[in-house]
Structure formats: structure tokens, C-alpha cells
Design brief:
The protein is of the alpha/beta class and about 190 residues long. It has 2 domains: about 5-85, no CATH class; about 90-190, Ribonuclease Z/Hydroxyacylglutathione hydrolase-like (Metallo-beta-lactamase, Chain A, 4-Layer Sandwich), CATH 3.60.15. It has 6 helices and 12 strands. The chain has helices at about 20, 45-50, 55, 65-75, 130-135, 145-160, and strands at about 10, 25-30, 30-35, 40-45, 80-85, 90, 95-100, 110-115, 115-120, 165, 175-180, 185-190. The strands form 3 sheets. The chain has a 7-stranded mixed sheet with strand order 6-7-8-9-10-11-12. A 3-stranded parallel sheet has the order 1-4-5. A two-stranded antiparallel sheet has the order 2-3. A hairpin with a 2-residue loop joins strand 11 (about 175-180) and strand 12 (about 185-190). It is globular.
């Protein structure tokens, strides 16, 4: 992309599953080191505490065994982490971290508003546009099923009410679109 890793200022993790935090570090001379050595890594405190616990490593339902050691601990050890508390909140007076637990214990979605428009980066609250129509569907990677469903309903309602652009991570095509309320639920439209 033409950006040197030393030039990156911030790295946001919505949660700490391997496919969302595995690039936090890189292997240099047999040691995991921060990929972006001058950046502040921002992620939910609850995620860090949960995955640091040896108990989470023995849970067959945890899709991130071993990720803490190679992708989280090195940035913590380097003093590069800013935590978002479980209640969410503002960061840099620009970003809103929204609690959307369920897919993982402390999952957060991130909203940014500019020029009267809002975009929400949802992390893994939704894995497929099918879940917009059927929000009760969980993936095999959702660790806390009831919370995941409740967070999806809450986010879909919010997206439809404020007409926010939704930025998905696992949708096919552009992964960007809008949610609208229908008579019997919600619909999805790609942009």
C-alpha cells in the first residue's frame, strides 16, 4: 500500500481472534515483535484478560488458542497498548467503540462520524449478509451464542435507525453496505 510499517500510528482490534489480530506482530530472528513499532495498538481490555488466561486455552470453543502469546503479548511487552474498557467509549475524540460481545467475550464494533454521516466497522458481529435477514444464526466461531444474537439485533437496529454505512470483514464483494428495516426484520444492500 506504499506505507512503511514505521509510519502507522494506530492499530485497532475489534477482538483478538487470530484473523483479526494475527498481523499485530511479525517474526524477526525467531522472536515475535510488533509489526508497527510506532503505533498504538487499541483493543478491548476484556479480550486481553480472557485470552491471557490459561483457562481460555483449554476451552474447545475458543478459536484463538496460542494467539495471545505470539500476537498480543509482544505488543503488551513493548508498552504499545491502549485498552478500551468493557463499556466501550470514545477514542481520539473521533472513534466510538461499541460493545458487541458474543462473537467473543469483549468484542467491540467501531463507529466514526464525519460530515453528518456514520460508518460502523463491525468486526465479526456479522459474518454473512444472510445473518442480516436471520440474525439468530451464529457461526461456529461465535463463542457466546445468546450474546452474539443480542448484539446482532442491537447493531442491526442501530444501523437501520441512523442509516450508517456498515463495513463488514467477511462479507463477499465490497463488504460495505446499508441495513434497512423491513416488515419482518432487516435487509442488506451492497454499495
Amino acid at each position: 500500500m506504499g506505507v512503511d510499517p514505521d509510519e502507522v500510528d494506530f492499530v485497532f482490534n475489534t477482538h483478538l481472534h487470530v484473523d483479526h489480530s494475527g498481523w499485530n506482530t511479525c517474526l524477526e530472528n525467531g522472536k515475535w515483535v510488533p509489526t508497527f513499532p510506532n503505533a498504538r495498538y487499541v483493543f478491548p481490555r476484556a479480550e486481553c484478560e480472557y485470552y491471557a488466561s490459561p483457562a481460555s486455552h483449554n476451552d474447545a470453543n475458543t478459536p484463538s488458542s496460542g494467539v495471545y502469546e505470539d500476537s498480543i503479548a509482544p505488543v503488551l511487552d513493548a508498552g504499545l497498548v491502549d485498552f478500551i474498557e468493557p463499556t466501550g467509549g470514545r477514542y481520539l475524540d473521533l472513534f466510538d467503540f461499541i460493545p458487541t460481545s458474543g462473537h467473543s467475550i469483549g468484542h467491540m464494533s467501531i463507529a466514526v462520524t464525519s460530515g453528518g454521516e456514520t460508518a460502523v466497522f463491525g468486526g465479526d458481529i456479522l459474518h454473512s449478509p444472510v445473518q442480516v435477514r436471520y440474525p439468530d444464526l451464529n457461526t461456529v466461531f461465535c463463542e457466546f451464542h445468546d450474546q452474539a444474537q443480542a448484539s446482532r439485533y442491537q447493531m442491526l437496529t442501530r444501523l437501520a435507525e441512523i442509516r450508517a454505512l456498515y463495513l463488514a470483514t467477511h462479507f463477499p464483494a465490497s463488504s460495505a453496505g446499508y441495513v434497512a428495516r423491513t416488515q419482518d426484520g432487516f435487509s442488506w444492500t451492497y454499495i
